[in-house]
Amino acid sequence: METMWIAVAVLAGMGIILGATIGIAAKIFKVETDPRIELVTELLPGVNCGGCGKAGCADFAKALVAGEEQPGKCPVCSQEAVSSIARALGIEAGETEKKVAVVLCSGDNNKSKVKVLYNGVSDCVSASLIAGGPKGCAYGCLGMASCARACPFQAIEIINGLAVVHPHLCVGCGKCVETCPRDLVKLTPISAKVHVYCNSPEKAPIKKKVCTEPCIGCRKCLKAGEEGQFIMRGFLAEVNYDNAPDTDITEKAACPTGCLKIAKNHLAIEQAEVA
Amino acid sequence: MQEYLEITIGAVLVYNFVLARFLGICPFLGVSKKLDTALGMSGAVVFVMTMASLITSIIYNYFLKAPIEIGGKTYNIGFLQIILFIVVIASLVQLVEILLQKLSPPLYKALGIYLPLITTNCAVMGVATLNATQNYSILKATIFGFFSGLGFSLALVMFSSLRERLELADVPKPFQGMAIALITAGILAMAFIGFSGMC
């Protein structure tokens, strides 16, 4: 019986001593933090994707409170979340146009020719280091899922050897943009629905040899669209994302190869090809 | 001198905490995906294991080893060892975290999230209990704790470098992810069994 009381007494004493020590230490060594940081952290999505360029949501919240960043820099936040953060801090919301990643290539396994048999490490960076990868086009998607692995939101799928972004899953954090060794992935404003799914500025005959769906630089889309909606880079038409064309441009332009596509259709086409 | 050598080499290689004693498997598998997180965790483990060994061996040597005398009567409170160690280690880590945050922000940032993670890790608890069963003196216990932490770090850093390479390897579908990690850990453990009998 006595042993039991001893045990209770020892543990209770220990608890009191340790509790008091920690309590006193917490008082003495208290680090003053801005209460707003906690508030803002709660308002942020908390996925720690790093899309804002900070180490995580808590880090971004610190920068927000310090006034170094604008809430609009968070690519994941919805418009409401951004404005509620801005209201909480009493500052301007900043630029808020949501961005979506696009892989500007149509060259899946059916469309692009394979130059050599590649048996190495299944990683785009590794493959591009060895003679530019297995595919014939030196500008196209390697299809080895470096971007898909980098995506914290599983928004990129490799369909038939081509990386395709699921626009409704993409939050525009830009992780994929950094990983792609070919700079194929671009962050585009969500209002831009149409893209030229080609990235090669080479001449049409060269492109035609390695791919069945390149941009051949015929300028049909330039003529069909309004002034300044497309720009030419070498022999490649590009959508001017500051002045993006409407979805009906695909019908008006009637792209001869079909690489001018609406993002949603592009995904559907690729999915249908596999099925 | 030879005794200390035995303790150090034993803790790092022969009786490696992870690969020979199978303690602390949770952080071993959990934070070994990237080398830099593994290094952060290693630092925290070495730190906490050394501190825990020091404090628990003081408690063990002065209060638990022999019956203590209170008011003319002797009581043996050795049976409270495990619960006392748990409480003491947990609050020690808590205390260290508070102190670090104030006194050394860079160190706090480096160890930051890993410190509370290992508070109740079985490797830390294990080192305290082993110190007690081996009846180590305070100095020996502290040395043992430090080198046990180093052994853990060795295993963790090795394993995380292996896993970084595995990321690039062409692993058959059924073995992808945790499966191949566990197989790798098993092979690594087999390699460390080669040290057994050294001391």
Describe this structure as you would to a colleague.
The complex is a heterodimer of chains A (275) and B (199). Chain A has eleven helices and eight strands. Chain A has 275 residues and is α+β, with helices and mostly antiparallel strands. Chain A has two domains: 35-89, 3-methyladenine DNA Glycosylase II, Chain A, domain 3 (Orthogonal Bundle); 99-274, Alpha-Beta Plaits, CATH 3.30.70. In chain A, the strands form four sheets. Chain A has a two-stranded antiparallel ribbon. Chain B has one domain. The mean pLDDT of chain B is 87. The longest helix of chain B has 31 residues, at 138-168. Chain B is mainly alpha-helical. Chain B is globular, with a radius of gyration of 18 Å. Classes of the chains: A alpha+beta (275), B mainly alpha (199). The interface between A and B is medium-sized, with 21 and 19 residues.
List the helices and strands and how they pair.
The complex is a heterodimer of chains A (275) and B (199).
Chain A: H1 2-28, H2 35-43, H3 57-65, H4 79-89, E1 99-103, H5 124-129, H6 146-150, E2 156-159, E3 162-165, H7 175-179, E4 185-189, E5 194-196, H8 204-210, H9 220-224, E6 230-233, E7 236-239, H10 249-253, E8 260-262, H11 263-274
Antiparallel strand pairs in A: 1-4, 2-3, 5-8, 6-7
Helix pairs in contact in A: 2-3, 2-4
Chain B: H1 2-14, H2 25-30, H3 35-64, E1 68-70, E2 73-75, H4 81-103, H5 105-111, H6 114-117, H7 122-133, H8 138-168, H9 178-193
Helix pairs in contact in B: 1-8, 3-4, 3-7, 3-8, 4-5, 4-7, 8-9
